Amino acid sequence: MKTSSLRRRHIVAASLVAAGLGLAGPALAQAPLVIKFSHVVANDTPKGKASDFFAKRAGELTGGKVKVEVYANSTLYKDKEEMEALQIGAVQMLAPSLAKFGPLGAREFEVFDLPFIFDNTAELHAVTTGPVGKQLFSKLETRGITGLAYWDNGFKSFSANKPLKTADDFKGLKMRIQSSKVLESQMRAVGALPQVMAFSEVYQALQTGVVDGTENPHSNLFTQKMHEVQKHMTVSDHGYLGYAVITNKKFWDGLPADIRTALEKAMAEATVFANKIALEENEGALAKVKASGKTQVYVPTPAERLALKKAMVKVHKEMESRIGKDVIDSVYKATGFDPSKL
Ligand code: LMR
Q1: Is the beta carbon of 153 within 6 A of some atom in ligand 1?
Q2: Which own/partner pairs from 314-322 qualify as long-range (CB within 8 Å, at least 24 positions apart)?
Q3: Whose CA is nearest to atom 5 of ligand 1?
Q4: Is any ligand 1 atom within 6 A of the Cβ of residue 41?
């Protein structure tokens, strides 16, 4: 979308906000404050369900003074556009994956993309709910963005039209990735050719052979029907994909205090909900992929997984100058990971 058209939408959005705050005269004073919440995945995913939950609770807890409109599945904006839309105020909330903050200049968030950095959700939560998570959010403020919460999706599997069991199997494959330099380096570490692409374009790119494979949590793969155009999937759990719910700082700081407090409560509840359903949504999606019979699902042996880990973990060192050694070390400290022990 062109910037000018984004700006036109911004003017409409800004007047809606003004109306909601009672700034547009007595006739409009009762109109609810509209918050546009845009995202790129299906409703039937952890993020889709959690944003709908937030919308419902925001309405309830503000006694109808706030109306959160959720735009799912890239219906309003695609990956890159939505970040710009948030910055100019055309939408008020997003929940981009943590892999999509690099282009904003917040490269530290790519620490979450480092392959095999988390062994399980408990390790991940030690980061997202602790001081490291808070510190990362503080990096967004200077970019006009306020971080509200971390929402889980899950660990990723690789998929392609051939079985992916060893690092060698990736050689020469064109693999779709999110806009993260860490993911680029991860794919190069096993000889694959990374291709950055918006989420909304992946199904078609796989179907037409523009790319050969990709990586996803199961809920994303299944709800976009990628299993229909990928013959093989490896449950590698090699990396994490989750979200930061973010808002436009100016908008957020300008809210009446009682409204902001109610929205913070709605967000806290939505976060508990998101993180509770994420695992079961992904397990359910995996079961459906298996039941479809369209994709052969392979679970690597511990030895195969370790070999893949050894092939990919060098990315941590390579990415020190981009992410910051201090940031990587603070994650290691929170999780207990020590790459020298591999
Ligand atoms: C992707 O682009 O693969 C994901 O970030 C989509 C999402 O929001 O889960």
Answers
A1: yes
A2: 314/189, 315/114, 315/115, 315/182, 315/185, 315/186, 315/189, 316/114, 316/117, 318/185, 319/110, 319/114, 319/181, 319/182, 319/185, 322/107, 322/110, 322/181, 322/182
A3: 97
A4: yes
CA distances from 7 to 3, 81, 178, 251 (A): 6, 12, 26, 16
Q: Which two tokens stand for residue 105?
A: 């200049």
Instruction: Decide: pTM greater than 0.85.
Output: yes
Q: What is the mean pLDDT of each run of 10 residues along the chain (342 residues)?
A: 47 44 51 97 98 98 98 96 95 98 95 97 97 97 96 98 98 98 98 98 98 98 98 98 98 98 98 97 98 98 97 98 98 94 88
Q: Is 178 close to ligand 1, i.e. is its CB under 6 Å away?
A: yes
Ligand 1 pocket, residue 185 CB under 6 Å? no
